Amino acid sequence: MYESASIGEHYHLEVLSASSVDTFWGVYSSDKSGCNSGMDIHGVRRLNLTALINRDFSGNVSAFARRIDRKPSQILDVMAERKGFGEKLARYIEEQLNLTPHVLDGAVDVFSNGDNIQPVQVGNFEDGPNVRGEVPLISWVQAGLFCTAIDIHQPGIAEEWIKTTVPIKPHTYALRVVGDSMEPVFPEGIIIIVEPEMEAVSGDFVIARNEHHEATFKQLIKDGPDWFLKPLNPRYPIRPLTTTDEICGVIRSAEHRFK
Q: Which domains does the chain have, with CATH numbers?
């Protein structure tokens, strides 16, 4: 499930200013020989990594993390001193970037002008996934009436258009969850993206309609030869999938919207 805290190249920034670098990692100084004083080896490596990311990755921690095949959160934890900057990681970074062995342990002016260390953007979020398109948010009455043949270009079909990060097809649409039968995973108000052209298998979350063309949102479960529609909230009963029921679509993703 995707909760859209950010979409695209967005960061929630905790920028380390040049003036605060010394207080963030301890007192820094560099003499003519390139030796760093007043710091332990972890601090020296962090300063060098800061300068390296600025020089070669324009201060983008996520781009650096992708280059060395590590999660941005791992790098951020090291840079924010939530984790140590140990020997193994330092040598790994040097190897991945074809750097001189132990260069991260040396003078910071290898990567910068020594005392002119620029801020690195330390984000709380990784890069968001790319938006694939927009789909119409329709009503549950419409979902039950149209089922697998929704014309999303029909005038007035959409209450609004929802951006989504999943691949879309000509009839992909969105619904806003009503009620608490699918809590706690899908609370009331969450928006779900429905793909009517996808074949449902056991375990999928689906939109189904009954003989009265009433749509419902449940999990499709197979037990032996029998199929069932299962709510996630244990307060509601599981019911058999009958011959008069029709599966209208498979849930591809869900997102919280706060406003």
A: 18-110 (1.10.260), 133-255 (2.10.109.10)
